[in-house]
Amino acid sequence: MNSLNGSRRNFLRGATALAALTASGTSLLTKGARAETPAADVISGSHWGVFRAQTENGRAVGVTAWEGDPWPSPQLPGVLDSMYSPTRIKYPMVRRAWLENGPGSDPAGRGTGDFVRVSWDKALDLVAAELKRVQDKYGPTGSFAGSYGWKSPGKLHNCQTLLRRAMTLNGGFVNSSGDYSTGAAQVILPYVVGSIEVYEQCTAWPNVAENTELMVFWGANPLNNGQISWQVADHGCFPGIEALKKAGTKVICIDPIRTETCQYLNGEWLAPRPQTDVALMLGIAYTLYDEKLHDQTFLDKYTAGFDQFLPYLLGKTDGIPKTAQWAASVCEIPAETIQDLARQFSKNRTMLALGYSTQRQHHGEQVHWMLITLASMLGQIGLPGGGYGLSYHYASGGAPTSRAPILTAITDGGASVAGASWLSASGALSIPVSRFVETLLNPGKTMDFNGTKLKLPQIKLAYWVGGNPFSHHQDRNEMVRAWRALDTFIVHDFQWTATARHADIILPATTSYERNDIEQVGDYALSHIVAMKKVVDPIFESRSDFDIFAGICERMGKREEFTGGKSEMDWIRSFYEAARLEARAKGMEMPVFDVFWDSNRPLAFPVSEEQKNYISHKDFREDPLLNGLGTPSGRIEIFSKNIEKMAYDDCPPHPTWMEPVERLGGPSVKYPLHVAAIHPTLRLHSQLCGTALRKTYEISGREPCWINPVDANSRGLKDGDVIRVFNDRGQILAGVKVTDLIRPGVVRINEGGWFDPVDPREIGSLCRYGDVNTLTTGIGTSKLAQGNCGQTGMAEIEKFKGEPAAVSVFEAPETANG
Amino acid sequence: MTAADAEQMAVVANWIGGLFLAPQTAEALERHLEAGDLLEEIGQQLDCLAGTRRMNEVLAKAPIEVISKNLERRYFALFEGMAGRHTVPLYESGYAGTGTRLFQQPVTDMECLLRDLDLSVEATCCEPADHISIELAVLAAALRSGNGEIARSLAQRLSRWGPGFVARLCEEDGDEFYGAAAVVLYAFILALPNLVSCQEIAVKAADGSL
Known about the structure:
The complex is a heterodimer of chains A (about 800) and B (about 210).
Chain A: H1 8-13, H2 15-19, E1 29-31, E2 40-46, E3 49-56, E4 59-65, H3 78-83, E5 93-95, H4 96-101, E6 115-117, H5 120-138, E7 143-144, H6 159-169, E8 174-177, H7 185-193, H8 205-211, E9 214-218, H9 222-225, H10 237-247, E10 250-254, H11 260-264, E11 268-270, H12 277-290, H13 296-302, E12 303-304, H14 306-313, H15 324-331, H16 335-347, E13 350-354, H17 365-378, E14 387-389, E15 429-432, H18 436-441, E16 446-449, E17 452-455, E18 461-465, H19 469-472, H20 476-483, E19 488-493, H21 498-501, E20 505-508, E21 517-521, E22 528-532, H22 545-555, H23 559-563, H24 568-585, H25 593-599, E23 603-604, H26 609-612, H27 618-622, E24 636-637, H28 641-646, E25 673-676, E26 704-707, H29 709-714, E27 722-726, E28 731-738, E29 746-748, E30 794-799
Parallel strand pairs in A: 7-18, 8-15, 9-10, 9-13, 10-11, 12-24, 13-14, 18-19, 19-20, 25-29, 26-28
Antiparallel strand pairs in A: 2-3, 3-4, 5-6, 5-20, 16-17, 21-22, 22-23, 25-30, 26-29, 27-28, 27-30
Chain B: H1 3-21, H2 26-34, H3 36-46, H4 49-60, H5 64-79, H6 105-116, E1 119-121, H7 132-145, H8 148-173, H9 177-195
Helix pairs in contact in B: 1-7, 1-9, 2-5, 3-4, 4-9, 7-8, 8-9
């Protein structure tokens, strides 16, 4: 050897010492080769649909949509990016200040990235000990485990259920109720129609395509939001929309944005001022009444309280008749157009499809209530193709429901209640989910909520899994301030989201593609049962949430209670076998579990002709006594005596127009532009923001901000400009897209952009990427529902001066070194 | 190449690899500090005295407990994936020119080489096989087993992507410990073609400043 300089002998003398220098010490390699893993084609599922993953040598090399998917989502490639993201959390980590100085140390340092890698044993010991400390010192109301968010689908690895299961075993916790999607509507609708309705089936698309003459998408955009489902997406709304187009059905879209759905169906676009939907509906309702176009017979037979609402509509109670002219002054839709809408609605078989976004605003409860009132006045509820639907835009509502049995799921150990899983009654106390920040800031305060008075607990520990509150919660800076009240924030995640960055203890969880599970396809369609097969082994040191919680419970002496003595596959098999029994009772024979699992195909269930022609509220219409609603009167309540008893100043007993705290054209507005914080196009809330999909929509490396040419010109803005969007609550950077697909006075910045403050220690620090919830208000919708107001926010825009700070929250720059 | 030559190179390869596998403990750093002469000699042998001296200077700047914490912070910021654009991927996949995804073809290639050597990564290590430390460990194993073909293959791999890694690391860490370690790694990669008697391997210049 001649290439090394100097004395080889001396060098070799030191070789042994050299080998001992580094921390690892031992060899990284061991004798014996691992067997080559044969290539495979693995069926699995996700929020974006059923897919097949191609693997080679245990590595996923491709993802293709399942051949039975009628409209594969363009978001599916994000699956691979998620698994193999350079921002994967590789090891358990503990924030240094917390580790060295104990719980509550330097809370302002959260988000600054000073973590210490620890072993799994150490991490689990720390978590178990901290849960016990808080439990001992503060009792069950000291820990919050009402963790919320779009966790991955699957009946076993529902991490939020698993968290609550573990926390129940640990002595209790504070839970959350409701959700961020429909917080206002799901509380008021039981008073109006006797159920939460927002997640219930609409009149099926085939029936709509055949019978509906006028389809009104009101703040509803199925072509975008239908890409995803809470379970595994079926995309059944897309054939429905196609059928509507083929039928030539007239479409009106009421939205500040000319949506994809509006464009595809060549709909008539009406763009009222945001948050004025109730005023617009009242103007239509007034016209209906004034021109005797309303269906008094329907109102008399199927509703209660119209007579108490009517004086308000006519202005006899407040001196303001809700005429089309009055409505026009509020919503900026011409009075003639409003009157014409009333006439068209009544003349045609009309389906009113309302989106969830309309109720995510101050006084958002009123929107759904007023729409149902309007539909009641039209008298078409329960008729083919008529009435209203509240989930046509979500998870393919309206896709006909199959005869599939319902897969059971692991439980959280609390008292079960009917309805969605997040309505479970577990926990020592439950607070409205969007009031967590308010709770942290106001321990001991009494909060009105849905007829009750909640004493807000003092919470010292929060445990979050399967969610990203640093994305979905409003008023980010208030939230950052509130978080400092916590002693400890524990998070499971697979990627360094803003929430993970703010953790004290972060435990690396697998993606759903690194564990086995089982799920149904389609929230409404329930078209198939799909094996969510593990595509690859857990990446880095990640563990499934089930394994993580089992490890924590083991330290509390509760492992057996937590696991039920079952392995992952034992649980999955048990869910399937229970469904198999139910199917048999329905006259269907499902294959035995092993045959199903090994088939590598989703198991299909038949759809009856009746379901293809399902008409919402048909039974109620046919016999309102026998099939009465779950309201006190058994009818649609346009006036609610129960709400009247609550005497809330912000939720009267009938649908009412009330000014939100701020709105475009409002009486007390400080900033000129409404911020439409709507659902993103190529991600699921914040999920997939950290993938290559972002490259397809980001502008100058920032979250896009749509702005009308009128507003852009008056500010000297052009496409690609980096702008500062600001109000009294915060400031963000964004990239300009000038487009006439949005009305003047409104800018669109999608929710879910990753929070990226220049200085995490500074409350109010500029977000470099464009987290729109830095700008939205954190107040509750009303004392009734205490939902979030993610669509309430006004701001101003200016071209950013100087060199904008580089975004720092995503992956390393791409390095080509071929 | 004699067995002693191969052993010498294997030791250096494992030492460099060990620097990047995990944050160094205070004890390990103490050992480095005490082995100043040895590092000096490595610097001379690899013609990268600036690198090894800089490593020693950084370690001697403050009490070792303080240095240990500082380096732990630097390791986290550089390698753990949280620092966004300031992250320096430790994996060949990050430099393969196929995007930012990890676990790409280089992982499969490396697993193939491991099989050829009848080796596997220890179960306690959850890193993919294209991690810089594992590639260096496989190189060391090939050298020790006298498998020149695989050693040359590894040298070629490291010559292809190592300079990009070194450049990114120098860009982000400059004169600090890991930046200095990158200088040593680069010198080692530069020396590899001759060391494994494979003259045709051309090391792509990482950066003019190196």
